[in-house]
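Reopening this one. Same input as before:
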Amino acid sequence: MKKFLKNILFAFILLPAIMFMAACTDGENPPPQYPEQPIAITSEMIALEYTSTVYNGSEKTPTVALTAEGYTVDSTYFNYSYTNNVDAGTATVTVTINQENPYAYGTASTTFEITPAPIYVSTLDEINAAINTTTKNHVIVLTSNITSSVADNGYIQPVMICPVEKDLDINIDLNGFDIATEIWITKEYYHTEGVVGGASSQTHVVAENKANVNITNSKSTGIIGIETSEYVGLDYPILMKITDNYNVNLTNVKTFGYSGGIYTNGSYAGNSNVTATNCTFVSAAENASAGAYFAGNVNYTFTNCTFTGFTGYYAKSGIHTLNNCTFNALAAAYVGPSEHHGNGFNPTGSAMCVDSSEGYQNTLVIKLYGGLFTTVSYEAVGIEEYVTYKTAPINSYSTVEIYMESFNGLPTVRFQNDSSLQWK
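Same output, byte for byte:
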């Protein structure tokens, strides 16, 4: 009996020791082992409750967790703060260790995104109403295809982006749908009640504010210009008449117009920018039009874009950076230098036309980094110089600078005045 009681007592004494040893050897629940020295925290050690959220006008404050060498740092050891955490954009969380501890020390930051809140539209009137009230904190999202009606006087109602009363930050997500009208991004227009057009009797509206415009995600046909009795041969799906302080960005957008795919007029807007990525701009070749027509002194940057028309790409002014773009001329016959159309577009049938006429902001700069030039007519070339000389003497030209890199084969070229051209 004494021996039995002795064995029981021994078991009670030994059992806690066995349980402790088991815990120490349990690979899933190892005992805490602090770093030999506290380590400086980095952004990778910070985990947020979420990394993206939608704008709603209130502060966004995701909770924060901090780990050091795999161990969670108790929240009593650190503080964190937020910056830029109300408006759409990139917000920052900064974490600071507030006292000595066995884990970590220092300060580190990480970020999260606040995306614009959607405004859903299904009509042209709804788009234009949203443009007048929206901010960078919103994105206008199409929920159906939209077609503009033609007024009795032959004018159409465009999507109108004109910063008359205030600076504009416009985000439009086409959401896979099409718009059959023009998108005007402009400093001025003529207006009467219910009509936008060019009649001299209308009120002349001029804007002096800034505009930032982002348009994304069109369908296979995209933004389609409408030809009407008043706008015969003058329609452009995206028409820009801009001055300084305009920034236009297009991503995954397609356009088709009878006169061209995209257009800027001959304004002086040296600090404005037009940028496009993965876009296609097409015009009807039978109208002797260009996939793109750029007379404005603007900074243009196009990446992985395609330009198709009678002439693929027509440039008169500005700095053009073209990365891996395709320029397609569909003209069946070459329209040579004998054909002048005054101070305007001159169809050439070539893949790219650089117009060195005076009267536009000098110097025209073309920077080509890779790309493809295609033509149909055997007389057409890849890059051609053209001169609209009715605004300047025929022997007076601006300078055209052309940079070319990363081409497997250089495009053929033809220039009227070699002294105007500078190869870089």
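So the earlier flakiness isn't reproducible anymore. For the record, The chain is about 10% helix and 45% strand.
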